[in-house]
Amino acid sequence: MNENTPLRDQYHADGDEYGSFAFHPYNVLLMLIIFSLSILFVSLTISFVYSRVQSSVPPIKLPSIFLFNTFILLASSGTMLSAKKAYLSDNTDRYKVALGVTMILSFLFLALQTVGWMELFRQEVFIDSNNSAGYLYLISGLHFAHVIGGIPFLGYFIWQAFTKMQDPVSVLVYFSDPEKRLKLRLLTIYWHFLDILWIYLVLFFFINYLIY
């Protein structure tokens, strides 16, 4: 191998465990989590339809803030992708900024989600109002919880970026770490999954409201 080959490419070319992404235990675990969550949310939405049909309870119109939150989550997914690209191109400043903006957007999503629930409260739609309301709070609450679940991992990357990248040598070591590259890729995939899942849920409740 050419001695001028970038260190991260040397890791990949050597076929180490981090280069074998599809079969790495971290990746297998994430895929199992995503598969399980997909089955869970699909099952809940099917149960919602069945319950609504059986009880003849009208669906609930989502507050407009739920739709706006979709764009917030899309933006956070985009900044995560930007962070990944910055990592691969050794762009320290862009990497830090992209991670920081992702964190801000994530907290904004959670705050606006709370505002959406408060709007439902003002409409006197509570979790025990009917089956439709119960499923809406349960499903949106589970998604809310999984966004919160990803924040500590994102925070870890931000902390690492600002504490481990102090000089050119530490930056080189950080960007050449194949384990960090793998974990960043997994976190990016998880963020994209949450984005796709939210779009599915918003469309699901919107379509259910239209076809009532």
What are its keywords?
mainly alpha, elongated, disordered N terminus
Report on the structure:
With 212 residues, the protein is mostly helical. Helix content is 80%, strand content 0%. It has seven helices and no strands. Helix 3 packs antiparallel against helix 4 and helix 5 (131-164) packs antiparallel against helix 7 (178-210). The longest helix is centred in the last third of the chain and has 34 residues, at 131-164. It is elongated and about 65 Å long. It starts with 6 loop residues before the first helix and ends with a helix. 22% of the residues are buried.
Write the layout of secondary structure elements.
Elements: H1 7-13, H2 25-55, H3 64-88, H4 92-122, H5 131-164, H6 168-175, H7 178-210
Helix pairs in contact: 2-5, 2-7, 3-4, 3-7, 4-5, 5-7
Helix/strand/pairing category: mainly alpha
Order of helices and strands: HHHHHHH
Helicity, as a percent range: over 70%
Largest sheet: none
Question: Helical segment tally?
Answer: 7
Rounded to the nearest angstrom, the distance between the terminal CA atoms is 64 Å
Residue runs with pLDDT of under 50 for 5 or more positions: 1-17
Give a count of the beta strands, DSSP E runs of length 2 or more: 0
Apparent shape = elongated
Strand content: under 5%
Average of per-residue pLDDT values: 86
Compute the gyration radius: what is it? Answer: 21 Å
Characterize this entry briefly.
The chain has 212 residues and is mainly alpha-helical. The protein has helices at residues 7-13, 25-55, 64-88, 92-122, 131-164, 168-175, 178-210.
